[in-house]
Amino acid sequence: xxxxxxxxxxxxxxxxxxxxxxxxxxxxxxxxxxxxxxxxxxxxxxxxxxxxxxxxxxxxxxxxxxxxxxxxxxxxxxxxxxxxxxxxxxxxxxxxxxxxxxxxxxxxxxxxxxxxxxxxxxxxxxxxxxxxxxxxxxxxxxxxxxxxxxxxxxxxxxxxxxxxxxxxxxxxxxxxxxxxxxxxxxxxxxxxxxxxxxxxxxxxxxxxxxxxxxxxxxxxxxxxxxxxxxxxxxxxxxxxxxxxxxxxxxxxxxxxxxxxxxxxxxxxxxxxxxxxxxxxxxxxxxxxxxxxxxxx
Length: 296
Ligand code: G4P
Description:
Blueprint: H1 7-21, E1 26-32, H2 44-48, E2 53-58, H3 65-77, E3 81-84, H4 96-103, H5 105-113, E4 121-127, H6 133-141, E5 160-162, E6 167-170, E7 174-175, H7 183-192, H8 202-216, H9 218-225, H10 237-250, H11 262-274
Parallel strand pairs: 1-2, 1-4, 2-3, 4-6, 4-7
Antiparallel strand pairs: 5-6
The structure holds guanosine-5',3'-tetraphosphate.
């Protein structure tokens, strides 16, 4: 689902999260492991007002493991604990409770010294649309929690969901907006499926994805499409388009007269990429050198 974010929506979304912060101990910031910065809200540090925070790099099953490790190190340098998970299978999710408790170590120790048995950690999950918030909540709850209406401003009665005896979640996640005014961010969000608009500029998005793969995932292109892209000049857009056409030709995306249907080839490339059919691919690396700073 695509959300049209207007200033009013952003203000409301922000206010809703700020109100919930009073109720919780820890924020679970959910990011897409393939594009951790592009799937991040640009004002997150300001919105969370210093609340203890655990970063979850979701959809790790689709992300490049090595690049994800580089991201974990990146967040560590920023003072944040980041844990790669897969909310569909639940992989690594057992770590969420101990990591959250570790963030509250001092508070918990203080309570224990006073003879108070600490209660379950109360958490709020926040993230942009389609990053996996509902999937994570359902997984942690062990049941399907009612759909939350993934729209800024749509709320219902606040409820706590038990995730075992040591973790409680607010049932309505905090929905945040991405830094969509940055074209590089928009392309990454579209390529990974965070923006699932029917009117997506498929060719433009596929061009970005193919160029990135020619640069960093030559092997994946070779394996999936038997294409040798060595020596492609990335500065020459025509050469990248030729790679897209070669994929289209191999996959039978042809128009009458034998010309490649580039639009069709583009949708096919992106569907494959989103579904992980080209292997585990990340579209953002801390060393990319692109300015993807999360500050305003
Ligand atoms: P949201 O609440 O943040 O908006 O996201 P939601 O849970 O609805 O998840 C969005 C999509 O991402 C869902 O796919 C979901 O299955 C998928 N997803 C969530 N976590 C993971 C993960 O760790 N790995 C993978 N591979 N996918 C994940 P969908 O397209 O809505 O449905 P479908 O593809 O399951 O049919």
